């Protein structure tokens, strides 16, 4: 399937701030991209949610957002940095936590956390525990 990733990303981020949208890693369930923006603006993660695995997507996104807000509150109370230690869901321009395109595919965006490392698999028990 071909998608106009800039058009989709602009449902969440002002199009004039978007430099490019590129694939990020190898997704097994969802397709994941990074929205790179102009200097001084944050970057974002864009995902095409697999509606065959996760259904219904709108309810799933509501749950993800509630959990993230709850975790952020706990981090803040503990004196941590909730913007670095928890995911931030970015609503679409219409206020929904997802966008459904013309092909009835669901998309969601979260804030990209700079200077982080991701792993495709946990190669040690210690890494699995840390995750």
Topology, please?
Elements: H1 5-9, E1 18-23, E2 31-37, E3 44-49, H2 57-77, H3 82-85, E4 89-90, E5 99-100, E6 106-111, H4 125-130
Antiparallel strand pairs: 1-2, 2-3, 3-6, 4-6, 5-6
3D architecture notes:
Strand 2 (31-37) and strand 3 (44-49) form a beta hairpin. The protein contains 4 helices and 6 strands. Strands 1, 2, 3, 4, 5 and 6 form a 6-stranded antiparallel beta sheet that branches. Helix content is 27%, strand content 22%. The longest helix has 21 residues, at 57-77. It is α+β, with helices and mostly antiparallel strands.
Q: Brief description of this entry?
A:
The protein has 131 residues and is of the alpha+beta class. The chain has four helices and six strands; from the N terminus they run αβββααβββα.
Sum up the structure in keywords.
single chain, alpha+beta, 6 strands, globular
Overall average residue pLDDT: 91
The total of beta strands comes to 6
**How much helicity do the residues have?**
25-40%
Question: What kind of sheet is the major sheet?
Answer: 6 strands, antiparallel
Percent strand equals 15-25%
End-to-end separation: 32 Å
Name the overall outline: globular
Q: What is the CA-based Rg, rounded?
A: 15 Å
Low confidence ranges: none
Order of helices and strands: HEEEHHEEEH
Structural class: alpha+beta
- Count of DSSP helices? 4
């Amino acid at each position: 399937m071909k998608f106009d990733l800039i058009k989709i990303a602009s449902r969440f981020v002002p199009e004039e701030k978007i430099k490019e949208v590129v694939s990020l890693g190898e997704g097994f369930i969802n397709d994941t991209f990074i929205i790179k923006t102009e200097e001084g603006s944050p970057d974002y993660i864009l995902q095409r949610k697999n509606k065959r695995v996760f259904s219904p997507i709108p309810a799933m996104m509501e749950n993800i957002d509630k959990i993230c807000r709850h975790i952020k509150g706990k981090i803040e109370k503990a004196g941590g940095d909730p913007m670095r230690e928890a995911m931030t869901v970015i609503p679409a321009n219409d206020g929904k936590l997802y966008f459904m395109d013309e092909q009835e595919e669901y998309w969601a965006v979260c804030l990209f956390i700079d200077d982080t490392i991701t792993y495709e698999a946990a190669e040690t028990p210690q890494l699995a525990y840390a995750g």
